[in-house]
Write a structure and sequence with these properties.
The chain has 5 helices and 7 strands; from the N terminus they run βαβαββββαβαα. Strands 3-2-1-6-4-7-5 form a 7-stranded parallel beta sheet. The termini are far apart. The protein is α/β, with parallel strands linked by helices and 174 residues long. β1, α1 and β2 form a beta-alpha-beta unit.
């Protein structure tokens, strides 16, 4: 039985391209679900001319459909809530130890995570950059850090063969 369970929580995202990129990262890093709050993404999807399916295997769920008030209400008590944003007093991502079961909450592209949510979080971390990254970039960096610090980080040619594009036939020559 899988012990890890990883959820990404997006607070009121507005950009279909950012959410699409988050879904791609979720697939690459084996996230179990992506949750979001608010209505901006739903409105943007209706206006978007590019409505390709973002992921067939990872649920993208508006928490309103779950009948809960906030992202934190979507997880059980065994799941650690981790806010990820440029918040004073947060732990730098390179020294953070990821919990097995986690809900990583990211603020909106044009704002930050509400203080009430931060106060309820088990951990608050930030990516040490000069300036801020966009939403999708932040999710990718967080998920890569989680992978790099895990036992799954040790991989080889089999993973490369499974993951690469069919047009990529390049090999390292010794």
């Amino acid at each position: 039985m899988k012990k890890e369970f990883v959820s990404i929580g997006l607070i009121n995202p507005k950009s279909t391209s950012n959410v699409g990129s988050v879904m791609r990262a979720a697939g690459c890093y084996q996230v179990d679900q992506v949750l979001y709050s608010g209505h901006r993404y739903d409105r943007a999807m209706k206006m978007s001319t590019d409505t390709k399916k973002t992921s067939a295997s990872i649920p993208l769920i508006n928490i309103e459909s779950l009948g809960v008030e906030g992202l934190i209400d979507t997880v059980d008590s065994d799941t650690a809530v981790v806010c990820v944003d440029l918040i004073q007093g947060a732990t730098s991502l390179p020294v953070f130890s990821h919990p097995e079961k986690a809900l990583y909450i990211f603020g909106p592209e044009d704002g930050t995570i509400d203080q009430k949510i931060v106060d309820q979080a088990d951990f608050v971390v930030f990516v040490p950059t000069v300036g801020c990254m966009n939403l999708a970039a932040s999710v990718n960096v967080l998920l890569y850090d989680r992978l790099a610090k895990s036992a799954r980080a040790v991989a080889g040619d089999e993973l490369i063969r499974q993951s690469k594009d069919v047009n990529n036939n390049v090999k390292v020559r010794v």
